């Protein structure tokens, strides 16, 4: 399905029946990456997989302001209104996790449950954000100067995705094709408009989120395990699951485990989790 919001075209895939579940992919990804989870979630969730601005089949406008993470959260709110949906569960991975958290902070009344896979509330200090903006600007220039293929060659080989090297070739090819389907403008503008360096820090807002939150990390991704540990000490109603022998993208590296964990969390009723509980 296509929706136009603020002059930008947004692509949305839906399947399954039940309580609405919004799925938000990571940087260079798209909604296609979630389709293999239909067997896990289709009986209890109506999944809504969005191509985030600058990705997949959604538009890639030139205005950086339309990529800002709070603007993207407002777009999600408008999208839900257009779809006649009042309250949802939200699952976001990496960049999509930052967007999911932003939506939960800005529209807490709209979120029943929140699932964050390898996500961060942002950088705590302006000095850190300034340094990240410089790094992301360099990356965006690399995309524009060298093109999508050369950038994806580089992106696939950063340490964050080292654990994906052992995945079957068929899976690695599928992921690469998804990444290559993006546009130069979309990825470059996404880095400059929605990068960690330009988003607000939500660390101080975590204590105010009352909905049940599930954090999922891979034990090989030590940086995001440390972030999840910090978050789990602040969030009032949280569970933290760590997948063994998995890196940053648990849903890619351990799909059956990921699908089962998410399904279990969404199917639970009336939980009142202790702060920082970890399984």
From TrEMBL:
SUPFAM superfamilies: alpha/beta-Hydrolases. Keywords: Lyase, Menaquinone biosynthesis. It catalyses: 5-enolpyruvoyl-6-hydroxy-2-succinyl-cyclohex-3-ene-1-carboxylate = (1R,6R)-6-hydroxy-2-succinyl-cyclohexa-2,4-diene-1-carboxylate + pyruvate. Transmembrane segments: none annotated. One of its GO terms (molecular function) is 2-succinyl-6-hydroxy-2,4-cyclohexadiene-1-carboxylate synthase activity. InterPro entries: AB_hydrolase_1, AB_hydrolase_fold, SHCHC_synthase_MenH. The keyword Protease does not apply. Pathway: Quinol/quinone metabolism; 1,4-dihydroxy-2-naphthoate biosynthesis; 1,4-dihydroxy-2-naphthoate from chorismate: step 3/7; Quinol/quinone metabolism; menaquinone biosynthesis. Residues 20-255 form the AB hydrolase-1 domain. Pfam families: Abhydrolase_1. Its EC number is 4.2.99.20. The keyword Lyase applies. Belongs to the AB hydrolase superfamily. MenH family. Monomer. Catalyzes a proton abstraction reaction that results in 2,5-elimination of pyruvate from 2-succinyl-5-enolpyruvyl-6-hydroxy-3-cyclohexene-1-carboxylate (SEPHCHC) and the formation of 2-succinyl-6-hydroxy-2,4-cyclohexadiene-1-carboxylate (SHCHC). This is Putative 2-succinyl-6-hydroxy-2,4-cyclohexadiene-1-carboxylate synthase.
